[in-house]
Amino acid sequence: MRIWFDVDNAPHVLVIKPIAEELTQRGHTVIFTARDRSSTCELLDLYNLDYIKVGGLYRNSTFGKVTGTIRRAFALRKAMKKWHADVSFGHGSRALPLTSAMLKVPSITMYDYEWVNPSLFNRFCSMILLPDVITLERCREAGIDSDKVSFFPGFKENLYLNNVEPDPSIAAELGLKDDKIKVLLRPPATTAHYHNPEAEEILDALLAKLLNNPEVQLIWIPRTPDQNELVGGIHKAEVIIPEKVYPGPQLILTCDVVIGGGGTMTREAAVLGVPSFTFFMGRLGAVDSALHNSNKLQILRNKEEVAIFDSHKTKLSVYSAGYRTISAIVDYILN
Q: DSSP secondary-structure letter at 228?
């Protein structure tokens, strides 16, 4: 079979990579298209994955996102119409199912936050893959077409985290010190349609606390370049802004604690057993609920909780699903 993967955002590179590798090992042909934003192409380059670059940033408005998605869908059609894919696969890519419908290619989407708008996926995807902690009842509540839903075991992070080893060269390059508290902080996605401004209040409180602690090395991972202004100036803490893209899991393993306004890094840390805190203020998803209920992920719900927040260095137990997760998703693609 000829399988087409579209990578729409940086975290999806690690999700799709092991699936594509397994398909290749089984004798199938794969191809990648990629949207040039949020270090997506840099990560594909880091892992030596060939791809066709199609599209980039959209304007930060609902109209801009809609028109950007439509334009990218037509650009994808132009890029892929002669490749004759048997099936397309994306992790939440919205342009991909539109293009696939134009090209009459069955399209599978996979995602793990059930409260995104599912309209495009319901209409144009042949299958919607979700982690098995999201129930059919939750799917119906979120407006997801339950007739198209299939479930995979574990979390998407299990696709690529089970065999991760620390990389000491990252700590050396960043100048991380053993006698400091190394805090990785990822701000919220302020341009996402599910963003809640309360998260920015919590971020302000976190920065006020962390930047005034001389024992802290703050590894700041912005989503957009303008967010670097939030950590500008002189502080008691040392602020480190990486100058290049590092593999997220290995970067996490260099840190004592990970804090994020939602997204993949807090879940990666939780699965790896690194103390993880989220201050995502959108509607809580089933994956984060499961991690929180099993004491893998802590939730900062307001700026008052930040006042009593403290980090620690205790490693927690690690989830394990590994090849079982990869194999299940590959079988869905092929069947």
A: G
Domain boundaries, the chain: 2-161+322-334, 168-308
Specify whether the CB–CB gap between 104 and 85 falls below 8 A.
Answer: no
Which CATH class for the 2-161+322-334 domain?
alpha beta
| Rounded CA separation 308/310 (Å) | 6
Architecture of domain 168-308: 3-Layer(aba) Sandwich (3.40)
User: If you search the block for the tokens 């939780």, which residue do you land on?
Assistant: 270
Rounded CA gap, 181 and 240, in Å?
13
pLDDT in tens, 253-310: 999 999 999 878 999 999 998 989 999 988 999 999 999 999 899 898 888 888 766 6
Q: Which two tokens stand for residue 5?
A: 């993967």
Distance CA 4, CA 86 (A): 8
Task: Determine the distance from the C-alpha atom of residue 277 to the mean position of all C-alpha atoms in its chain, rounded to a whole number.
Answer: 15
pTM of the full predicted structure? 0.87
CA distances in angstroms from 217 to 113, 212, 226, listed in the order given: 31, 11, 21
Q: What is the pLDDT of residues 256-272, one digit of tens each?
A: 999 999 878 999 999 99
CB-count burial class (<10 Å; 0-12, 13-18, 19+) for 106: middle
